[in-house]
Design brief:
Length: about 210
């Protein structure tokens, strides 16, 4: 096999692995026996949360240019679109939970819920919203590129860590093994792109 064939095979394997990593947790959650007697709103709330976690895996891969066959400008464009869908998924997740049980959502938002995973979920939610808002207002804020990147990355990191802890602490619709796999991949991909892009590296000018 020549170099071109090897590269194509590698690209196919990467995309297949990514689809499996995302599809398996969603399918396992959709087939969970815990949803058998739940109403439609509760099921939508749970699946929206799983979809949001799955979308988080795409974001660092797109920013870092790790997905073969996607030029840099298309990767950035997809990153913005998926970011919007991610915000929508989080909003649906929280909104559907509100319809199902308003007191529980109020307790979570006020950080008075007895369940530890609620606080991590709220922190992740606000971090996702803040990161998206910062991205939308990037031009108006007139921040330096490095300053904006550090602020955006910090919010994203808080969102990822909060979401991972939130998901791992919940014993719900997500199947355990696939959930751990997805959370590990999301965290690893986020850390990798932060390290590769030297987001927090301080550059110093040399004096002649």
């Amino acid at each position: 096999m020549d170099a071109r064939g090897t590269s194509r095979t590698r690209a196919i394997l990467i995309w297949v692995a990514l689809v499996i990593a995302v599809a398996v947790p969603i399918a396992a959650a959709a087939a969970s026996p815990l949803l058998a007697w739940r109403d439609a709103v509760y099921i939508i709330a749970g699946l929206a949360g799983v979809v949001a976690m799955a979308l988080m895996l795409f974001q660092p891969l797109l920013v870092g240019g790790y997905l073969p066959g996607l030029p840099a400008h298309r990767g950035r464009l997809l990153h913005r679109w998926i970011g919007g869908v991610l915000v929508l998924a989080v909003a649906v997740h929280v909104g559907a939970l509100w319809i199902t049980s308003p007191p529980d959502v109020v307790d979570a938002l006020l950080f008075t819920s007895p369940t530890p995973f609620s606080a991590w979920g709220v922190i992740a939610m606000w971090a996702v919203f803040a990161a998206a808002l910062l991205a939308a207002l990037r031009l108006r804020l007139r921040l330096r590129p490095r300053t904006w990147r550090r602020a955006h990355t910090s919010l994203v990191l808080v969102a990822v860590v909060g979401s991972v802890v939130h998901a791992l602490l919940i014993e719900g619709t997500m199947e355990t093994v696939s959930k751990i796999m997805l959370c590990t991949l999301v965290l690893a991909a986020t850390v990798k792109v932060i390290v590769d892009r030297n987001v927090w590296t301080i550059r110093t000018r040399r004096r002649v």
